[in-house]
Fold this protein.
Amino acid sequence: MHLDNLLYLGSIGAFNSNILGLITKAGWMAWSVLVILLLFSIVSWGIIFLKYRVLRHATSESNKFRSVFRKSASLSEVSKKVEQHRGSPLANIFHEGYQGLAGILKSKEGTSYTSDEIGQIMKRSERILRSSIQDEASYLERYLVFLATTGNVTPFVGLFGTVIGIINAFQQIGQMGTASIAAVAPGIAEALVATAAGLAAAIPAVVAYNYFLNKIKQLSTDMDTFAAEFLSYVEEGLKRR
């Protein structure tokens, strides 16, 4: 191994040991700040992994169910395949819409419907679908508020730790009666660790929040489009009757 590589690895090891040394020597207030930031970070990463899996599965299953819906000859045929795609928001919307439509038609038994009756059925079906879409969107957005909170709060928590560290550094100057680098540097370095920890917790949370929000927006658009297709299919079927 070249000498330059050895020096580089040695510098990394020294940097890491210095950081650990600063953390272990930190006061109880700095420790409290770092523990809070660590908890925020752990929960945020747990939510990130969970939401990534949920949204990826929802997107995949929705694409499959949309294909099933468009290839099927009747709504009853589609309803038999809903259970195979329960991870899909579209499948859940269809299930609610189909069950609601069945209840409406059962209460209006007859072989044909007037234009006014068809209009009433369509309005009731649309309300059912809209309610189902809101439920699915709320489910997909669950826990995102924590990511938003983490992205907004943790930089300020880190800043609070920084302010405390700077105050401690000035106290050290007063006690030692000197403003030399040797006296000030440890306290300032400890303060900056809190700032770095706050940013380390906030940045992934903000990036993930924006990414998931965009994915949910795409899925919401798919749900609206699917609801329109479902209603159009139902209206054509009622007119044929």
